[in-house]
Please model this.
Amino acid sequence: MLDSNVHAQLAALLPPSALLTSPEDTRPYECDGLTIYRTVPAAVAIPENESQVVAVLKQCYASRVPVVARGAGTSLSGGAMPDKNGVVLSLAKFTRIVAIDPLARTAIVQPGVRNLAITEAAAPYGLFYAPDPSSQIACTIGGNVAENAGGVHCLKYGLTVHNVRRVRGVLISGEIVEFGGDALDSPGYDLLALINGSEGLLAVITEITVKLTPKPQQAQVALAAFDDLAGAGAAVSAVISAGIVPSGLELMDQAATRAVEEFVHARYPLDAKAVLLVEADGMAEEVASEMAEIRRVLADAGATEVRVSKDEAERLLFWSGRKAAFPAIGRITPDYYCMDGTIPRKALPSVLARIEELSVQFGLRCANVFHAGDGNLHPLILYDANAEGEVARTEAFGAAILELCIEVGGTITGEHGVGVEKLAGMCVQFSPGELERFLAIKAAFDANALLNPGKGVPTLHRCAEFGKMRVHQGNLPHPDIPRF
Amino acid sequence: MLDSNVHAQLAALLPPSALLTSPEDTRPYECDGLTIYRTVPAAVAIPENESQVVAVLKQCYASRVPVVARGAGTSLSGGAMPDKNGVVLSLAKFTRIVAIDPLARTAIVQPGVRNLAITEAAAPYGLFYAPDPSSQIACTIGGNVAENAGGVHCLKYGLTVHNVRRVRGVLISGEIVEFGGDALDSPGYDLLALINGSEGLLAVITEITVKLTPKPQQAQVALAAFDDLAGAGAAVSAVISAGIVPSGLELMDQAATRAVEEFVHARYPLDAKAVLLVEADGMAEEVASEMAEIRRVLADAGATEVRVSKDEAERLLFWSGRKAAFPAIGRITPDYYCMDGTIPRKALPSVLARIEELSVQFGLRCANVFHAGDGNLHPLILYDANAEGEVARTEAFGAAILELCIEVGGTITGEHGVGVEKLAGMCVQFSPGELERFLAIKAAFDANALLNPGKGVPTLHRCAEFGKMRVHQGNLPHPDIPRF
Model:
């Protein structure tokens, strides 16, 4: 519930339709893509311009009301989950592509612009916006920056942080700030990377300058079948160590390809234990030469079959299976839990083998569909929320996968963020000193921890509590919803 | 002078040869590449391993003694200038290449390894380390990270920050910290970019994992002559807007080419007002196609002559002039002041024209040799330190160039850093709120401001003092040596 004074003050700052407080209006905002956690917010503000964002933030700052910024709500880590005493600040009306500069190869966009809409707007200039998360039809660029989103093409073209030049935002105090700029480097500390992936904890983003990339002349994808999963993992390293930088290098195991084939008929080889998709792009001669090398490396690495797309239609068909993998899995299981961890490429064969063992140990099926080229795993744990004990087993299985990622020198998130989901993992990944510095940096921007409270970085106190709850090795505790 | 207690304590931590305190031993450390500022330190510590670094820092922290880390001392902004009451911590003994992993395309190196030595060590694997500052024969990778160094190839391959995966260092408290890691992204705030370009203010670097890049099959360079400087500036934009990403795109004006020609005989066209060097690299077919396009664009942009290197020997000859430009200028003037600012590419023609006007206004010659592709200017102001008033005029000219950079949306440094040189410029570039956040971030790592004090980020008090000294618009005040 919002204090009635605060409500009146916010109402004075916004048009009537831009402030929602009744439960039927605020309930749609109770969760994001991680539906397991739900909280109805005290209010939802939907400002129309930056001045209104400033006004709302100033008011919330003065009244010590928490604020959670929200884009399309596609976060998979609860990054946009509301605070029950707080305001959800929706950027849904910030949908303008302000300018495209084909000479500088940049676009200035508002945070509510959908990822794919940038590429569509840049297409007439022969340009595109490279990072392409699976949710790119729906997710917005503001959320992409907040989570430092990745995607299939990030191996060659980089993550969001590598494709953003400037971020404009508003601090909780109402002060307007800019990170980065038109120049490649700037004096002072580099805070552009800090705002990327800061999960809404430092500022509310109001405008972004993104880099645009020239569209490659041609692209071709090789589909390779393997009769064991570890072999496919080893082939990933073989491709990279051959000096090839594919524009996409994705792995799907048999559980995934079978589910996909029933759904989109992408003509994947169903008897294969794993399938690799390896894309080359660039000039025609470059693609031809790289594809010949890819064929050779995949054959040497033990592929039982390698098919190369003959034309653009076949290339899109091969990719259609990968792009539809998550909904396809959704058709064969009541529920699934999409994990996100990153490991060094060389650890792929051993980690994939270990996940197969864990699947048997926990008695839960697991499908693997992931960005193999940059070691970003997405094991999907298949479960039934209505079956006795399966939710707890699923969470324990997921936690074991994350600990495995840390053990081999990887991290607990590749592109989905920490949000509320992985706070406990942060206590395992980082030392108290590291967490203290994170908290000090947070305090440099938001000393009262009003922006997206209880997300991203746990307090040391919270880590101590998690530690007590940690009943046996191999299992992280249930990721609760803590507060700073 | 070091307190005798502190001296005794440091002496107990280090081998006798690793602690210098007599003036004849410490004087060689009084300045770096920016020789205009000199301070003899109280002591110089030359630790042999990380444990000794930790011990020295712990002792200095306990005794509140300032510490300035130093690599090869090639900084052009006074980044390694000592504090007279402090210890210079030299990383000169940290020269080991710890490991090269051709599969992961990374090298683990100590901070005292020379930039070029990494490329030499990676060559047997067909790899190289991409950022190549002009000082790459001498400068060390630790300093490259501290200053976020650039170079000719940064347009295509990125700055230091884009080529570093992990930085290990020691805080002033003695705590060992790691930034980044083997994975492409990591949870928590992205502090890897923060340590890059932090100018020794946050931690002393003890180990770095750099990315290595596959050596291109082929490279070719076009040398284009222009009969006016602004036209050459416009041609830079034309190349980029044609969708070409050259591996190098450098501009030299007539003052520079004439000085160079006398020195290295690179066969530059001496009647041209400006020369562009545009390099393409990649596969043979790719280079051929890109070079044809570069030729066409340069001709359309008004080049009076375009020559393309016929073989590797000619390519190196064309580059020899660019690489030798600074010493060549040194031959034709008693002194020169190398400026460093960055502007949006589209502003190149107008800014170059304005610099020519300023040259007349201040009565000082100016040569331009710079990374045109990424808008990183290096105007060299030619002066004679012994001529009445020339130093002051030079500084005023330099300040006017930097203000011009800010005016067109650029920044006061491209790759040389702020150091002691550009503290006043920081007050112009950033708002008090921005500086306050920089200082708060500094405090998260070094609350007592003991690491490299008086560099990088001015206090608000200091900015107020600069403001009072600022006598008339267009001229920044003399860059003094302030303290936090």
In short: Residues 236 and 373 of chain B are 6 Å apart (CA to CA). Confidence is low (pLDDT under 50) at residues 471-484 of chain B. Chain B touches chain A through 75 residues (CB under 8 Å).
